[in-house]
């Protein structure tokens, strides 16, 4: 069975390797797949976004292990989420927020039999979450590991808005290439605009159209494009829009993107 791993542990320490070792000692048949480990530390919203962009492509029975856990050792609960035929293991700190927009079940991990015998106050990824994920991947029923719970923690997800001037949205993520990924989806845009009389505005920058490919603008120039998730992205041909606009993951909150009707 597949177990994916998504953490902010980086690749220069032994944290991820220790978690994998724990999983494989419990279930040697587990197939371990890394989603990402080089997130900026403690960035729950980035982890939630990456999980949301990836989990749907895995087969039924996959267990997703997510450890971005700035509250480790505190009062936050260790949880399991089931959605459809997939399972998610990690801290109850909002990292699973995007899973809660459809039917799901939440369980608090309560049975210490499925944890390591000694549980560190600073490494629940190794001592709680990894063994629980391993046992789930080996076929142990969720109900034997945890008890049903209500009201898992979630953060507020910004929603795009249709206004008199057009469509206004937020930057949700900055990817490896410096693309600024927004929450404006193509369906909303097509409902709001019946003509090509619009421009895309971010800060002081004006982009006259939404391009079909990166090479439709000169090298280094900004462009708007529909990304692989069918959401609007602000990019730069063969360059970084984030660097061009002096934006990174720490500064995206409050940055607005507007698809504005011409003349407004």
Question: Explain this structure to me?
Answer:
- By secondary structure, the protein is of the alpha+beta class.
- The protein has two domains: about 1-150, S-adenosyl-l-methionine hydroxide adenosyltransferase, N-terminal (Rossmann fold); about 160-260, Elongation Factor Tu (Ef-tu), domain 3, CATH 2.40.30.90.
- The chain contains six helices and 16 strands.
- The strands form two sheets. Strands 8, 9, 10, 11, 12, 13, 14, 15 and 16 form a nine-stranded mixed β-sheet that branches.
- A hairpin with a 2-residue loop joins strand 11 (about 200) and strand 12 (about 205).
- Helix 1 runs parallel beside helix 3.
- The longest helix has 14 residues, at about 125-135.
- The termini are far apart.
């Amino acid at each position: 069975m597949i177990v994916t791993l998504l953490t902010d542990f980086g690749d220069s320490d032994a944290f991820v390797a220790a978690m994998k070792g724990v999983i494989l000692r419990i279930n040697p048949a587990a197939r371990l797949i890394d989603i990402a480990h080089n997130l900026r530390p403690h960035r729950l919203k980035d982890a939630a976004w990456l999980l949301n962009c990836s989990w749907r492509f895995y087969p039924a029975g996959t267990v997703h292990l997510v450890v971005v856990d700035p509250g480790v050792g505190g009062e936050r609960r260790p949880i399991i989420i089931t959605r459809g035929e997939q399972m998610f293991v990690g801290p109850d700190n909002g990292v699973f927020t995007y899973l809660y927009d459809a039917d799901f079940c939440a369980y608090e991990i309560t049975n210490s039999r499925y944890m390591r015998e000694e549980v560190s106050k600073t490494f629940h990824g190794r001592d709680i979450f990894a063994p629980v994920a391993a046992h789930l991947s080996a076929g142990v029923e969720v109900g034997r590991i945890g008890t049903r719970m209500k009201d898992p923690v979630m953060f507020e997800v910004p929603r795009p808005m249709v206004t008199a001037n057009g469509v206004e949205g937020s930057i949700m993520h900055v990817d490896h290439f410096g693309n600024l990924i927004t929450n404006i989806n193509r369906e909303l845009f097509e409902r709001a605009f019946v003509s090509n009389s619009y421009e895309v505005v971010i800060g002081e920058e004006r982009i006259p159209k939404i391009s079909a490919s990166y090479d439709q603008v000169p090298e280094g120039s900004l462009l708007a494009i529909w990304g692989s998730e069918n959401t609007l992205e602000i990019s730069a041909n063969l360059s970084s829009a984030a660097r061009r606009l002096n934006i990174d993951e720490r500064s995206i909150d409050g940055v607005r993107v507007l698809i504005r009707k011409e003349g407004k």
